[in-house]
Amino acid sequence: MRGNIISYIEMCRQEGISLQKGMNFKLRGKHSVLLMSVRPNSPYEDKIEEDGTVLIYEGHDAPKTKKSIEPKLLDQPEFSNNGLLTENGKFHKAAQQFKLSLQRPEIVRVYEKIRGGIWSDNGFFHLVDSWLENDGKRNVFKFRLVALDDSKDILLANNSCNQLEGRSRIIPTSVKLEVWARDRGRCVTCGATDELHFDHIVPFSKGGTSLKPENIQLLCARHNLEKRDKIQ
User: Over the stretch 101-131, which tens digit does the pLDDT of each residue have?
Assistant: First the structure.
């Protein structure tokens, strides 16, 4: 569920694989997975835009080796040295094929690193566009992803169509960090510190915002399920 707070181990268990890379195209032949961060000093310029409905994800650099030039000075690679598509190339190809109506939009699950050992499940997205952008030093890949409505995640993952509807919103990182500090990493109802979730006090479906800490709280799984979409 979007907003769940999980550990790295739980995240890997959820995907059934050890996630060693930030970009993972079609894990086990199913959906793709991206790991993101918008914290200070993050290695890539990921951005959340349009009131939390859109993620702009930056592609990844070439691997660093003892003999290679500093990767941050090199164009991000579309192909590896042996001519195969890199993860950048795979995501780019999928986005361009969607734009040409040659395939359905790729389904991508996004996890966000909030702080050391703390990750947030940002839910499922459609990959809808990609392009190369010069950052002043080199060319980097940019990927545009649209957040999907939680209630349609499973349906869309299995029966995706070209109609981009049912948008949801990501809670901005700054809001998550403020709420985490304010609620001291505990459920506001019972004080539990495990199976936590970023919960909308007034549900998004009923006009609640994702952009203000005042409308977000930490709830454990039990109290989050009890609350559902009821306004407390």
Answer: 999 999 999 999 987 878 999 999 999 999 9
CATH number of 5-170: 2.30.280.10
Write out pLDDT tens, residues 3-54: 788 889 989 998 999 998 999 999 988 899 999 988 778 889 998 888 778 9
Domain boundaries, the chain: 5-170, 171-232
DSSP the chain: -TTBEE-HHHHHHHHTS---SSEESSGGGS-EEEEE--STT-SS--EEEGGGTEEEEE--PPPP-SSSPPGGGSPPPSB-TTS-B-HHHHHHHHHHHHHTTSSPPEEEEEEEEEETTEEEEEEEEEEEEEEEEE-SSSEEEEEEEEEBPGGGHHHHHHS--S----B--PPPHHHHHHHHHHTTTS-TTT---SSEEEEESS-GGGT--SS-GGGEEEEEHHHHHHHTT---
